Amino acid sequence: MARPLGEATREAYGKALAELGRENPNIVVLDGDLSKSTMTKYFAQEFPDRFFNVGIAEANMVGIAAGLAASGKIAFASSFACFVMCKAFDQMRLAVAYSGNNVKIVGSHGGISIGEDGVSQMGHEDIGLALSLPGFVVMVPADGAETRAAVRAAAAHVGPVYIRVGRPKAPVVYENGCPDFQIGRAITLRNGHDVTLVANGLMVAAALDAADLLEQQGVSARVLDMHTVRPLDEEAIEKAARETGAIVVAEEHLLYTGLASQVAMAAAKRYPVPMRFIGLYDYAESGAPDALMRKYRLTADDIAREALALVNMRQSAAV
Amino acid sequence: MVTTDVSLEQLERTARKLRRHIVKMLAIAGSGHPGGSLSAIDILTALFFGNVMRYNPRNPRWEDRDRFILSKGHAVPALYAVLAEAGFIPEEWLWQLRKIDTPMQGHPSVKDIPALEASTGSLGQGLSIGLGMALAARLDNRRYHVYVMIGDGESEEGQVWEAAMAASHFRVGNLTAILDYNRYQLDGAIGEIMSIEPVVAKWEAFGWTVREIDGHDMRQILDALRWAREPRQQPSIIVAHTVKGKGVSFMENNNEFHGKAPTQAELEQALAELAD
After folding, report:
1. Residues belonging to chain A with any Cβ–Cβ distance to chain B shorter than 8 Å
2. How confident is the model at residue B6 (pLDDT cuts 50, 70, 90)?
3. Is residue A68 within 8 Å of residue B133, measured between CB atoms?
4. Which pLDDT score, from 0 to 100, does residue A1 have?
5. CATH assignment of A187-313, given 2.40.240.10, 3.20.20.80, 3.40.50.1970, 3.40.50.920?
6. CA-CA distance, B86 to B91, in Å (whole number)?
7. For the domain bounded by A8-171, which CATH number is listed?
8. Smallest CA–CA separation between B8 and chain A, in Å?
9. A187-313: same fold as A8-171?
């Protein structure tokens, strides 16, 4: 049942950037002394003239990126998700979102699956911060192939984009690439009629595994890869709500802001159904990534348990 | 674009007219920042009308234009007055400052008025943006120059020094900061709130070439702005010693007028003092 591990999404990001660099001389990349971790190093090695390592100064990095974008460049700026979103939030607000500059922020080491480095390095709230910036497209790809597609889509999109990528090797979800990827269009990975599992990032693979577990218990689960948190695919959510009557949302992020609250708002507006949420309620801690995912209840078992609870609730109501 | 040389008297006359526009638009708006607008206006006048910057009001996004960013965004009345005088925006717009359903935002908004170059008002950001523009010129083999005006209080922001460090590291010669050193910030005298001294030594230590001037002496301003464009491998800064509220006797060095608009009576007195 376990999916084979593929490349980390940050690795795929770095390689996709270098590919884009070869195709488009207008692409410039900035990093804040983390290019060996965010993987912008591939672009830096190939295009040193178009790469700016600004040192450990995220606010300045985003400001420079805005100035480059205002001069016609497609500027990708990277650091850890928590550093770029938290330390340069004011710059993203005024110089990117409010100004409408064509800046792509890519935060690596999103979520708690970075493991041993602990809370100060983990992106717990990066997606929520990005969502609070009007005009930002916000994406959380599930695996390497989808990351390449998301990075290409980001470069082609005119306007601010935030993409979260992760540190660990990611289970392969798209074995044959992700050719149908479109910003704002959920991908139905598995059809089902009893409950829908909505997820992004690493939780997509977990949701697929959860669907296998549910199937063993006679429950048919639909799985939606909601790689774009904004603009959200509300049609897919409404359809899932109508056709399956229950939704579980799973994300590697604080539940106060992020995919879960966006999906809940869309469902409430379009077709309210019972929902459950898998995510974080507090900061995590240091530890092995797998152990952390288990302790903070971000596994296939956790998703399956919540889905079963929803299905059982409906059945007891029907009795 | 100005193509013929202008006299100092002409520039001083223009600056006086733009000072009248500043106090009038603030009085009509009923709020805003006169002190820092009046301290900056001589420099802005020289930049735009003293044969310094290349620009085209009919094509504000002309790719080879020189860029000016007002990082101390609260002084935007000064920049609006200049943009109207240069023909980027109609003069009538000045009297719509801070009004709903107009482009005349209380702080610069580039989406509303593209000639503004950058949205500012959260202090500390403009120099980084200007550095990005200066780097883009290098990548594209363009010869434009980028000027960024920063405030003295603004110099307390850490991002200013991040940008200062990076600009000299990247050896950008086409970036010039102008420090409007009027010695006051909102809460009081800058030396009492948070001193930025020794400011010249700081910029030199960060790898910038520095020139100090009287920011109200047109000759010195013009000389410094042209000096800044000379080819070099490092960024430059003009430390302009200015007077907050300059030109209106009861506003000069009176920090009450940092962020308070003149009343109708005060406006009349100011206009009388600023008459030709």
Report:
1. 28, 49-50, 52, 54-55, 57, 59-60, 62-73, 75, 90-91, 93-95, 98-100
2. confident
3. yes
4. 55
5. 3.40.50.920
6. 10
7. 3.40.50.970
8. 33
9. yes
